[in-house]
Amino acid sequence: MFHTVRLAIVIFALLLCGATGRAAEATRIRVGVPTLNMVVIAFTAGKENGYYREEGLDVDFVWMSAPMALQALIGGSVEFTTVTGSAMPAMLAGAPLVNIFSSYQRPMYWLFSKPEINSVRELKGRKVGVSGIGSGPATVLAEVLKKNGLEGGRDVPLLALGRMPDAAAGLFSGTVDAAMLAPPFNITAKESGFRELVSFLKEDFVELQGSIVLREELLKSNPALVERFSRATLKGLMYAREQRSGTVAVLVRYLKINKTDAEKYYDSVREVMTRDGTVNERLVQKLYHLAVERFKPKDPPPIDRIFDFSMSKKINGQLQAVGWRPKP
After folding, report:
1. Which of 2, 16, 167, 291 is the most buried (most CB within 10 A)?
2. Is pTM beyond 0.90 here?
């Protein structure tokens, strides 16, 4: 009897050590993010709900501007980034990067100005703040300026202010006359008396946000790691779509905003979330051709070199097959 009990204790200790060892050996993953708002809710919800931990991943969000996140990805300082807009020029120029997942397919940006500016046309000669030149906000801004007979940089000076809080601070302080804002700063701007010139949710633009962009080399050398990260992120997206109260709580914690503003924010953008991290071929084609027209790359790579949602489709099929649903 004594030997049996002692053997059971030894086995339990070995199992405990093994479990502890596996936890200690969680693979560290760095993700370059330009914001911690609803744009990256699939990622923050994935972390808050332990989905990355379940995949044996220890995920760190590295907060930096979109252009810096792109450079960090290319240089190998981060394994993934969430930006597509800033990555598009580089990918069209041949940078070995690929987008395999997207949380949104419409731009979640608003163009706000000083109250005395009544229209986009009145921005001529006025300074407009963006997070970075070539970023997603700057790209869609250029298109709306073009529709109004203006050219960004020539008719309308564009100032790269860095992260989204810095762009908002530029507008609030008067450094710029208008700025491209993402939530929750659009809510703050409206409540502070600034004028909403454009809500890009209502415009016919395609913009992928909250994406998984990575180096082709990682996708080829360690597809299992990419799949684990993608599965946890997709679970985070599904949670954000289906669990309003829990997602609002995540926004309150990450953005340090009150519950009422977080609820307004959530309700305003949920409709443009993708269902499974993928975007249909028609919208991808539209985005690709607009980007080629805008950036005029000498020899652009084929579209399937830049966008490959096959892994996301596979993971979604697996989760559907087992009936996985996010718990409150």
Report:
1. 167
2. no
